[in-house]
């Protein structure tokens, strides 16, 4: 019988839970990370409004997203060390303070440069919350109950990106973009109060902590700089690649070389240090290494589809940002319902089989989207997202729980940091791949469709004649109506090319889901 339960199997308060029910503490610890992950997607639908209000171009405004992701990537390597030296609770609280304060500054930003700087600070604060929170939960619960704890924490990671576009669109349409940042303030303050009052520090970590400046002398500054450069530069490449024409741009090529060189230098450095900032040996451990890769795939599918499904309905159906975001919201509600089932499945079956089930459902959901046509309806998009939302929790929550199996207690901070690195990188890779495929496949399909439009074709002539008569019936002169008919055919070709490019991306997502199944089968019980 674990210390976490009484004779009836009910959870008991533990010292590190501050004398409170550990499941309540798990919910409290998940509050601030929910807002942090929400902020990775909430600003997407507001970029046009931000650009217009701050006298910037839409291309320039995308740095609002990039700066946040880069700051997230930079802080993750140091979060394990900071949580160990400062204490997990103290580090978590510092992250919440920085995130909340910078959210206020983002809301009052007076120019694009100021907003980018404040988003950097917000990303630094937010990036440390998720790994610190996961570490707290990993020590708060014994292994047999971690699945339940991460089920609660998984609400933040899986549901937040789903409701982000909807909430951001609604707030921007009804109020202003400033409020997408101001809504973090009450949640941040509530989190500070509850964590201070109800979360304790594990006694074993209090005993091992060293004075900050004494520990600072052992800090791996070179390793941190190399890892931060590697992740930060790679985030810039992923986030700006499609905008800057990938390796046709000197800017992207430079950052790609910086990332690659940093990684090449990091490996021998980290393997020969006594106290490396990131112990890369954890990556070659079978359980954790596989979990890391599975998380990359999972986050890529989750964040990638979260971004391009709203784009799809906006492009094909002309939806507003709010309505486009609402195509994702029912999926978030389904995820909430599935959470208890995920916990039961993890306690009944081996983790690898739970993950395989999740990937099968997600893969079938992506396959269903390959049946898109020009008459796509709101319900079609909603139902497809619901199918995906059924499978994703089985993968995400289970792989987070499984990643801690076989690790030593002093490796939980590092494991939490690296799993969140996988989540961040996977999401960025998913968005970059989907956007690049959309652009390239649209060009491919458009060129193929145009080849079939031959003025001498009887089918083309009949179409022009029919559409011309339609515009004449609407009151246009004959010559103008014919030009309108030709323009209409061009628009139809473009719309068809866009639709076919989305179908191609869904095919890639489906294949990625099914290809991850053999990896999941290699996980230990």
Extended strand count:
0
At CATH level 2, the architecture of the domain at 13-219 is Up-down Bundle
Number of helices: 22
* Low-confidence runs of at least 5 consecutive residues: 1-17
Give the biggest beta sheet.
Answer: none
- Give the mean pLDDT: 77
Determine the fraction of residues in helical runs and give it as a percent range. Answer: over 70%
Order of helices and strands: HHHHHHHHHHHHHHHHHHHHHH
Distance between the termini: 20 Å
Shape: globular
Proportion of residues in extended strands: under 5%
Structural class, please?
Answer: mainly alpha
Name of the CATH superfamily of the domain at 13-219: MFS general substrate transporter like domains
From the alpha carbons, calculate the radius of gyration and give it in angstroms: 25 Å
CATH domain topology of the domain at 13-219: Growth Hormone, Chain: A
- The CATH class of the domain at 13-219: Mainly Alpha
